[in-house]
Design goal:
- The complex is a heterodimer of chains A (509) and B (378).
- Chain A has four domains: 88 residues, no CATH class; 94 residues, OB fold (Dihydrolipoamide Acetyltransferase, E2P), CATH 2.40.50; 87 residues, no CATH class; 201 residues, no CATH class.
- Chain A is built from 17 helices and 15 strands.
- By secondary structure, chain B is an alpha+beta fold.
- The model of chain B has no long low-confidence stretch (mean pLDDT 89).
- Classes of the chains: A alpha+beta (509), B alpha+beta (378).
- At the A-B interface, helix 1 and helix 4 of A face helix 2, helix 5, helix 9 and strand 14 of B.
Chain lengths: 509, 378
């Protein structure tokens, strides 16, 4: 007789007891319980046997308290044992069903360790090029979110490939261990995309094969190491490898870095490139310490030592102090803006001064008044809020009018012009003069009650790469020429200060 | 209760009510047991309802609910309702008896009503604010319809930083969406977030302003902030993973043995070797398929033939075809008539699937009660 039937019978007996009641159970109940106890004993269910016997005895003796406790105990035992028994039966039935072994359906993925050579970043996608232990070319594709353009190597990005928040810099310094990672079967190189059930693990250290060192860049193939010479060209930069011109594209970060490198007089270096049908993608470059840097991605890849900028011109020295956040007294003849950046309130304009019609001069007067913490005279406001706008409107005029209007109206006016500016500035050649950009960014910060010494350029929403290039060229030319710093250089340094990242991106600190 | 000799500590009023309530419940249960159901009358039912009310006032929520269930059972017995089951009565009475005993034991240690909550239950969930951000990954979702007129979608979320399960539910009256929980997929989870239920059910999220209940319910309140998080992929399913049906039984065994808190089902993730064809069992109004696990054992998949399961049954039919064999399935495992049976929630595909008619990136999980596979592309 099966245990299931026995358990059903115990349940029925309990139901019968609950039906008749423990006080007047009927004469047949104790005997029925004894018979059931004998069956549970035969089935080696000792706990049930004890409970059934005790229940029968309590009923015979008219001990309703004892009978109640035993009946409840039996019901709890039944519930618990039935759960255990069902599990055993279910397990046994599964085992009985097991006749045929399973067969794996999945195609084996890629397993190996990959040492990265460098990244290619295109439209927000990462293509990480590397070589595995067998020297095979492996590419890992990812679309991280968000890619921090201020700090692509150090910023935290959410990666589908790594299934985690990662820093590109940490990834590039690591060896990637892959275990059965799905791969594109047909492609060469081995292309690995974000997968659901696999992810690369970052490991430190470990040597691996280096890209082959060649004299010229082949048309296609895995990354190679070449010695390249940088050549400034009208409208961009060229690169010569083994006497042959190789196009490296016109990435803003690369151009920014090559401008800095060229200003140092360093025009040759060993680089790892990816052949690209007659051109090449620069993956990494050896820096002065022999470590690889990634100049297409990292604005800090080529560093300027502040010492190279300092000691040539007192105004530049003062601006470098601003960039580094160091204490520095304004030199004789410093502009009002430079003094203000160094922490000195500019001199108040004399009382009763008339505001000029020229927007540049008018802005100077308005800015100095506000920077000195004074309100604008009513007659200035009257002049600049009632005159018609010029066409096209210089940014200085926008700033003066916005500051004179003040409040929401002034802010709306400046924001409308900034929106137009944002649409128009798509490349460095279309970028207004650095000083004009600072004027409007400063005005917007004041109208928004933000800190004008913070990062006022951020509020303009202009492409970071365009701004960097607008600022780097005059400084680089001044560095390489060895001449005195002109107004253009000082304005570029003003722009860098207003971008708020001078120390990080210009000197690598 | 005393904290120093001679000085009595004031017992909270709710705790003062507990001992008389337990005594009353015990007495009524004992009286019903002694007299037997044959001698029970509507007065007996009124007694049960009275002690249920006493349990309510003493904040003995679980005991109150069990007593109300017993009272309903007794009503059926008195009305000679064929739905009355003596076995259910016996089990219910045993649970009440156990609850009285465990509550007495807990009361001896309790100093505040909160100390009793684990045993006595709470009248409604309390949501507690969580500081900072939490990272979650949606791994399964299912649609459901209640007899009381609501339709809902429950999303199972894995919280990676705390290694625990959370559930988020979007519920609307059927007067709004009909008996079709899939319509909730396109709705925002609340009035302020631009996040639809379907988006929440796919992907990883960083949540701020989180309010959680003790049992892992996530409040989708208006102060919740949601940003895309780092997808965990298959790793999020690791805690649910069982290699075979036998391991699913083991999981059930872990929760089934407590006579008070025993669970009827568990959520597991299986990687089946294949999915069997769907057959209709009209006599029991259910569709039956099967999964063959990695050990070669065949485990039945059972879905009741209800309108809200139409999409699920169509999807199961497709999953049986070679082109749509899933790489894994999140299922609810339970025992029925001595067999392990599975109810599928979500199919997992290692190669992503583009769902038809939705603005979503290709997904790895297809929520089978909600998202038709017909028209999808791999």
């Amino acid at each position: 007789m099966s245990v299931d039937v026995l358990l059903d019978d115990v349940e029925q007996e309990l139901s019968a007891l609950w039906g008749s009641g423990l006080a007047l159970p009927g004469v047949e109940r104790p005997a029925a319980l004894r018979r059931l106890a004998a069956r549970t004993e035969a089935a080696a269910l000792a706990r049930a046997t004890g409970l059934l016997q005790a229940l029968g005895t309590a009923l015979e003796e008219g001990d309703s308290d004892g009978a109640f406790a035993q009946a409840m105990g039996l019901a709890v035992w039944l519930r618990t044992f039935r759960a255990v028994w069902s599990l055993e039966v279910a397990r046994e039935r599964l085992t009985v069903d097991t006749e045929t072994g399973a067969t794996a359906r999945r195609v084996a993925g890629y397993t190996g360790r990959v040492r990265l050579v460098g990244p290619e970043v295109r439209a927000g996608r990462w293509l990480l090029h590397g070589l595995d232990e067998a020297g095979r070319w492996v590419v890992l594709a990812d679309q991280p979110d968000p890619l921090d353009l201020r700090d692509p190597l150090g910023g935290l990005s959410t990666s589908r490939l790594f299934q985690d928040h990662v820093r590109l810099g940490a990834v590039l310094r690591s060896t990637l261990a892959l275990d059965d990672h799905p791969k594109d079967q047909s492609s060469r190189p081995i292309l690995l995309r974000p997968a659901f059930a696999a992810r690369p693990r970052l490991q430190t250290g470990g040597e691996g094969p280096q890209p082959e060192r060649v004299a010229s860049v082949p048309r296609r193939g895995p990354p190679v190491v070449v010695t390249a010479t940088w050549v400034p060209r009208p409208g961009g930069w060229g690169c010569r490898v083994g006497g042959v011109e190789v196009s490296l594209g016109d990435g803003e970060v690369l151009t920014f870095n090559l401008q800095k490198r060229w200003a140092l007089g360093v025009s040759e270096g060993r680089v790892a490139v990816l052949p690209d049908g007659g051109g090449a993608v620069l993956l990494s470059m050896e820096d002065r310490l022999g470590d690889p840097v990634f100049p297409t991605v990292d604005p800090r890849a080529v560093r300027w030592d502040p010492a190279w900028l300092q000691g040539r011109d007192p105004m530049v020295d003062a601006w470098v102090a601003v960039l580094l956040g160091a204490d520095h007294a304004p030199p004789d003849g410093a502009s009002a803006e430079l003094s203000w950046w160094l922490g000195e309130a500019p001199a108040r304009p004399r009382a009763g001064a008339e505001i000029p019609a020229d927007p540049v001069a008018a802005h100077g007067l308005v800015w100095r008044t506000l920077a000195a913490g004074r309100p604008l005279p009513a007659e200035w406001v009257d002049v600049w809020t009632h005159s018609p706008l010029s066409a096209p409107t210089p940014l200085e005029e926008v700033a003066v009018r916005g500051l004179c209007l003040g409040g929401p109206a002034g802010r709306a006016l400046v924001e409308a012009h900034v929106a137009m500016l944002r649409r128009g500035v798509t490349e460095p050649d279309l970028c207004p003069a650095p000083r004009s950009l600072w004027v409007v960014a400063d005005a917007l910060a004041r109208l928004r009650d933000a800190d004008p010494r913070g990062r006022p350029m951020d509020a303009l929403g202009l492409p970071l790469g365009v701004l960097r290039l607008a600022a780097v060229a005059p400084v680089a030319e001044w560095l390489s020429s060895g001449g005195p710093a002109d107004r253009e250089v000082l304005d570029a340094l003003l722009l860098i200060a207003a971008m708020g990242d001078g120390a990080a991106y210009w000197t690598g600190r | 209760m005393q904290d120093e000799p001679g000085r009595a500590v004031r017992v909270p009023r709710a705790l003062e009510r507990v001992p008389p309530a337990l005594t009353a419940v015990d007495a009524v249960l004992r009286r019903v047991a002694e007299h037997g159901l044959q001698r029970a009358t509507t007065a007996t039912r009124a007694e049960l309802q009275a002690v249920a009310a006493q349990a309510h006032h003493a904040r003995l929520v679980r005991l109150e609910r069990e007593l109300e269930a017993l009272s309903t059972q007794l009503g059926r017995y008195l009305e000679r309702d064929p739905l009355f089951r003596p076995a259910h009565w016996v089990a219910g009475a045993a649970r009440v008896w156990l609850l009285v005993g465990t509550t007495r034991a807990a009361l001896a240690q309790a100093e505040t009503p909160a100390d009793l909550e684990a045993v006595a239950g709470t009248p409604r969930r309390r949501y507690v604010e969580v500081a900072g951000a939490i990272e979650v990954q949606a791994v399964a979702a299912s649609g459901w319809v209640t007899d009381s007129g609501y339709a809902g979608v429950t999303v199972q979320l894995w919280q990676r930083d705390a290694a625990r399960w959370l559930q988020a539910a979007v519920v609307r009256p059927q007067t709004m969406v009909g008996a079709a929980p899939q319509r909730l997929l396109r709705m925002s989870v609340n009035d302020t977030l631009g996040l639809t239920t379907q988006m929440l059910a796919h992907g990883a999220w960083t949540l701020r302003g989180v309010r959680l209940s003790q049992d892992g319910r996530l409040s989708l309140h208006q102060g919740l902030q949601v940003a895309a998080g780092a997808p965990l992929g298959r790793t999020a399913l690791d805690p649910l993973y069982v290699a075979s049906g036998a391991e699913a039984v083991d999981r059930l065994a872990r929760g089934s043995l407590s006579p008070l808190d025993g669970v009827g089902s568990v959520l597991v993730y299986l990687e089946p070797v294949d999915v069997g064809a769907v057959t209709m069992d009209e006599t029991q109004a259910r569709a039956v398929s099967s999964l063959r696990d990695s050990a070669g054992a065949t485990v039945p998949v059972v879905v009741s033939l209800r309108p809200e399961n139409d999409i699920l049954i169509d999807n199961l039919t497709m999953l049986a075809s070679p082109a749509w064999q899933p790489d894994g399935m999140v299922v609810r495992a339970a025992l029925s008539q001595g067999r392990l049976v599975l109810h599928p929630l979500t199919a997992v595909f290692l190669d992503p699937v583009t769902l038809p008619g939705v603005r979503l990136d290709p997904v790895h999980e297809v929520h089978l009660t909600l998202e038709p596979l017909k028209g999808a592309q791999r």
